[in-house]
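Quick one: TauD/TfdA family dioxygenase from Paracraurococcus lichenis, structure tokens please.
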Amino acid sequence: MLSIEPTGAVLGATVHGLDLRQTLSDAEFAGLLRALGEHGVLRIPGQAIGARHLRDFSVRFGPIQGSVTGRFHDGEVPEVGILSNIIRDGEPIGIADAGQDWHTDMSYTAAKGFVNVLYAVQVPQRDGRPLGDTLFANMHAAYAELPAEVKRRLAGMTVRHDFNVFWERMRTRPGSMRAPLTPEQRAKRPPAVHPIFMTHPITGRTVLYCNPGYAERIVELPDAESREMLDYLFAHQLQPRYQWAHRWTVGDVLLWDHIGTLHNAIPDYRPEEHRLMLRCQVMADRIFDAGFQRQWLRAA
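--- reply ---
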């Protein structure tokens, strides 16, 4: 039977009673959605699953985004990406850029991202301590504590999010194995514009929807004012009181909400300390649909 154990911190809860080799019941799925809105990050420990199980679980939440490069995914289940620092026969077997700074996946797409689902296959350790924590920040709380004058000034404004800005920042870091995006790849990820304040589809509360990774410009402000305000918002949303860290264990499935959180992976492990995760990135097409909400949220 599904049960939810909150961390007691600003984010996070552990989900008990699920075996993701089995199909979720309707009640379990509705319970996960409600818990995701309330806690932002859900840990489902002790799983022993394959790529197909991860895909089948993830697709309940919405369509899965594919890779812009066409690389680093499971050969038999292409919806499942591979995150890893492992080099095999001189070639990386997955995307190795942990430590990508604070961001929200898929804010650069018109549909927006809804959830990431990661499965921990290998977790690096040193001296008995797991490495490679993932940090999260709570955007419900960040909005709630913005000064009233900032909320009034920015009400109704929008932000442009650009995938290539983030890609280039990561590509030019020392040790990165990313190549520049080709014109064709860039065309697959054109910039997208979203409201800076957004009503969360699960909680019905307002969140601050911008992030240091992809948000490049407040559309309605002149360049200098936009830069100044974005810098202010980034500093505000990353205050320690909004943050919580997940420490990985092999077998963890971690599910988190892109609309209500930011995240940042910590690269505190060496190349020989191997990390391997399977990942599905789920888009927000369904969660904003009124019929989907009536079926899974309002009637729950």
